[in-house]
Amino acid sequence: MSATLETPPARSRWTARRTRIAGLATGVALAAAAGAVALWPSSPDDPPSAVPVDWARPVVDDAGLAQRAGVQITQVAVTGGGGLVDLRFRVVDPEKAAAVHDPAHPPAIVDEQSGLVVHELYMGHSHTGTFKAGVTYYFVFSDPVNWVHQGSPVAVLLGNAQVEHVAVG
Q: Which end of the chain is more exposed for a tag (fewer CB within 10 A), N or C?
């Protein structure tokens, strides 16, 4: 017994070409629109975005950070070809420094120009154990869209405090 397979009617070559051209034109238009939105210049008079309300903490200077969180910022740098932000801090008071791992106030970097909060730790790294005075520790944050750049001002959120206008190295 032989079965006859019916084939669907073939589309004309012209219909297939029109469909490809329309798809290509739509893709180009969408890409151009997305690029225009992403690169739209902001007014030089626009103030930098503030830290989002739900992430904000009391603003302190370097000495205030040492008093509140028991640490001093030693470096904020872009690493990993721009996909990571490295935050280094020295412990001055080990008991207070435990606050940098408080889940209610997770560590974060906020780009002051865009307001973007970078807070996901690279590979979930988190210090365990007791901090030691005089030792430098670090957090490495994932920044997959490379929003934080060398020379950019950022706010550093550690414990229940934030230090603003820290220049990224």
A: N
